[in-house]
Design goal:
6-stranded antiparallel beta sheet, about 475 residues, about 30% helix
């Protein structure tokens, strides 16, 4: 009876082991089948493809025959052209051409004339590619006499320069995604960047001049670092805060969006007019909007800043320096604007690629080329935005075909137990299948060895019994 039970156990073990080998082989086959082939092109969104096509066409055709590009309502790139021959070349390239009356050269000449006039604080101008105009805005602080003078100047340049008043006032929004504090105020961190092995936070230049000391809390007990470079006003609004802890460069940029969630930044790039974008800040959280103009000039009370991105994204004091991004691509840091997240408004951003080029840095975790990703939870807003504010968004809630913030993950986590479990259970991972096969083969070998040892011991017992 005992020998019969042993045979049943051995046979069951062998059957289970053989089943494990078959199961592991099936898992490996499924994982290999689910891997994309080398010939499969990587997926890109229309928002990512359109800027490349439109921008490349404008660069190739020249500013004397084009006047910028933008994303159409159907997601296709649209290029403004001044003549039929150029329109035919745009159409042949797969984009849509729109005939306009003024070239980019003419629009740029108009902005140079505006910049050469006496500066009026509270005014801003930018190129509106879709209407083929230079839009000049004046906030509530501009006097009637200054408004009249600016209007006469605009009329003298041409009818494609449009003047309009806006509510509120253009301000740099000092105060700020994870807040950083100094004796001069509060700002938002933007993106983690590196130069060699040295790590920095890229944020707005108006937040503080060189030498400003920053803390991670409002008690001054946790020193973050010190501003080592700052540009404001002038050709940009950006600065570098060097981390004080002397630790190696962080490995990845995660933009916190509230509720313990963050968006991983994987690269940097330049926006295009019409693109949907997202901004995160410690005061108002995550909000979205659209790029309306590029190369904007804003006359803040402190001075003029050129080369900014103009958007419809709302912002409030405390959001300054926070990140602008879309589809996990770093685009800019918050400079200033007018309005708030209840009534809306205009917000300007420093382009991140221009800032990194001027500073000689790259997004942390990336190669020295200006592409991005990175690390030390540089931006982390305080409160979640709610639908009642009218501009709050939830990742993944955008309509089909629209852009999304990027891949969402838990903030502050590394490859822990949850991440390990997700990798093990990923059907594209061949590792679990190979482990099952190896374990099953080991079980087969073990049952074979156990059976041999049992037979050897039984023989010894039987043989020793013949000795008298």
């Amino acid at each position: 009876m005992r020998h019969a039970r042993r045979r049943i156990v051995r046979r069951g073990a062998r059957v289970a082991a053989l089943g494990g080998v078959l199961l592991g082989g099936l898992m490996v086959t499924q994982a290999l089948a689910s891997e994309p082939s080398d010939a499969q092109a990587p997926r890109t969104t229309s928002a990512q493809a359109a800027p490349d096509t439109g921008g490349a066409l404008v660069a190739r055709l020249g500013t004397a025959h084009t006047a910028g590009s933008w994303i159409g309502s159907d997601g296709r790139p649209v290029v403004a052209v001044t003549d039929r021959a150029t329109a035919d070349r745009v159409t042949a390239a797969g984009a849509r051409a729109q005939m306009v009356g003024h070239s980019m050269d003419q629009l740029k000449t108009a902005t140079r004339e505006l910049s050469s006039a006496p500066r009026v604080p509270g005014t801003a101008w930018a190129l509106d590619y879709r209407t083929n105009r230079v839009e000049v805005e004046a906030d509530s602080t501009v006097s009637a006499s200054d408004w009249s003078r600016m209007t006469r100047l605009a009329h003298g340049i041409g009818d494609f320069v449009r003047m309009r008043r806006t509510e509120g006032r253009f301000t740099t929004r000092v105060n700020g995604a994870e807040p950083v504090f100094s004796t001069s105020g509060r700002c938002s961190a933007g993106f983690n960047v590196t130069r060699g092995r040295t790590a920095f936070v890229l944020t707005a230049g108006h937040c503080g001049p060189g030498g400003t000391t920053w803390f991670a809390d409002n008690t001054g007990g946790n020193q973050l670092g010190q501003t080592v470079t700052s540009e404001f006003p002038g050709t940009g609004d950006f600065s570098l805060i060097q981390y004080a802890d002397g630790q190696p460069a962080p490995g990845g940029n995660v933009i916190a969006i509230g509720g313990g969630r963050g968006v991983r930044i994987t690269a940097s790039g330049d926006p295009v007019v019409g693109q949907k974008v997202f901004r995160s800040g410690s005061t108002s959280g995550l909000h979205d909007g659209e790029v309306t103009a590029l190369d904007a000039t804003v006359n803040y009370p402190e001075g003029a800043v050129t080369g900014l991105i103009q958007t419809t994204v709302c912002a409030e004091p405390g959001d300054s320096g926070g990140p602008l991004f879309s589809e996990g691509i770093a685009l800019g840091v918050t400079s200033g604007g007018s309005g708030d997240c209840r009534s809306g408004g205009t917000t300007f951003f420093q382009p991140v690629t221009a800032a990194m080029s001027a500073l000689g840095v790259q997004l942390a975790g990336q190669s020295p080329s200006p592409s991005g990703a990175a690390g030390r939870s540089a931006a982390s807003p305080g409160p979640d935005t709610s639908a009642s504010k009218g501009a709050g968004v939830a990742p993944g809630s955008s309509v089909p075909g629209a852009a999304a913030p990027g891949a969402v993950q838990a903030v502050g986590t590394t490859a822990g137990a949850g991440d390990l479990v997700s990798r093990i259970t990923d059907p594209r991972n061949v590792g679990p299948g190979l482990l099952v096969i190896a374990g099953s083969l080991a079980a087969l070998a073990a049952t074979r060895w156990i059976r041999t040892e049992q037979d050897r011991n039984a023989y010894r017992r039987a043989y020793s019994g013949t000795w008298g």
